[in-house]
What we know:
Largest sheet: 9 strands, mixed
Radius of gyration: 24 Å
Strand content: 15-25%
Helix content: 25-40%
Shape: globular
Number of helices: 12
Structural class: alpha/beta
Amino acid sequence: xxxxxxxxxxxxxxxxxxxxxxxxxxxxxxxxxxxxxxxxxxxxxxxxxxxxxxxxxxxxxxxxxxxxxxxxxxxxxxxxxxxxxxxxxxxxxxxxxxxxxxxxxxxxxxxxxxxxxxxxxxxxxxxxxxxxxxxxxxxxxxxxxxxxxxxxxxxxxxxxxxxxxxxxxxxxxxxxxxxxxxxxxxxxxxxxxxxxxxxxxxxxxxxxxxxxxxxxxxxxxxxxxxxxxxxxxxxxxxxxxxxxxxxxxxxxxxxxxxxxxxxxxxxxxxxxxxxxxxxxxxxxxxxxxxxxxxxxxxxxxxxxxxxxxxxxxxxxxxxxxxxxxxxxxxxxxxxxxxxxxxxxxxxxxxxxxxxxxxxxxxxxxxxxxxxxxxxxxxxxxxxxxxxxxxxxxxxxxxxxxxxxxxxxxxxxxxxxxxxxxxxxxxxxxxxxxxxxxxxxxxxxxxxxxxxxxxxxxxxxxxxxxxxxxxxxxxxxxxxxxxxxxxxxxx
Length: 490
């Protein structure tokens, strides 16, 4: 790549906006561009062969949304399905249909994995290098939107356990689950206590001989109706699109209210969650398995639709053990307490590996930029990097609530730059004001392990990532000061 070139090669593909990722964030951004910036040409690139992102990658039994679909769906195309908590294949179909409705598919380049993006100041463009089955290709763009998520698609987090090679059965990480894996009549141990383990357990329990969830530390679990009550009552009275919008508004208000209430009154929240568990499992079930050392929403609250997780425990199809692993054996897992869990299959639902910017090497002219060397602007741009937005959704609410605000913010910037004949913009913060605060105070394991890779945070807005939809709704959309901190250049 020649960073000193003054003119682009005519054979190189060119576009106004290049979107990386064809999942929820990327498809949503493409639809917003189609709707709000019709004069801008865009391309979407994805290393996979299909639309869907997360929902095309994960194939493990029970894969589903971990928040309600009325807020995980797009506001410009409301979710009209009956289930508030939807299976993964339905979410993937929803994304595919959205792309078709907004004529996005013709702009998508599949099997294009972005390796490097270099900003060339002389021509005011990003030169983006992709690898494809046919070899390397390059795309020239004015603006780069990274909608590629936050974790490594190649491998999940799989810690090494003592004695692991001795185990004679199968060891599978959910991210590597294949359709041909058989688990019928097998004794299974799931290592982990997060959303993936709680999702898989009730589905596996239907066919397995027995399934045990082995957790080092518990998670908070709340029961949520799989189908929204309003939908059940009004589905034959109110048109589906209107009803979905009403339910979405209700869901947003409830999410924000409950989150704030939980943070203000953590002990009361614990009591409510425990009462809910008692109603599911009875008064004698030990609550130690559902009592983490942290407060609710210090980490993400897990959801059990219609109490399916608890039903599997109540039916004795499954059990839960809170202990530490001493080592693997030929036929199971020896725990620190001395107890042995015999099993034929071990599922390591141990989490994700965070991958900043999709692993893309970012350079400005000849200078390589590490995200950790920058300060976050609005949780979506970085100091020192022009014309680049990355999408990091909410971790305490539906991802799409924020990804859609980020996509609309991109459209605001593009229209503003067009009106004023600007070519690029950069978040500008004086070097002596750049801070070293963590990107997010919400720190589940995958974020804690990778905080050193993320952009740093400043002391106040707009130099922070805030997990507050209502504040972002104003600050990124309606506020006349929404570009404070951005410097624009002709």
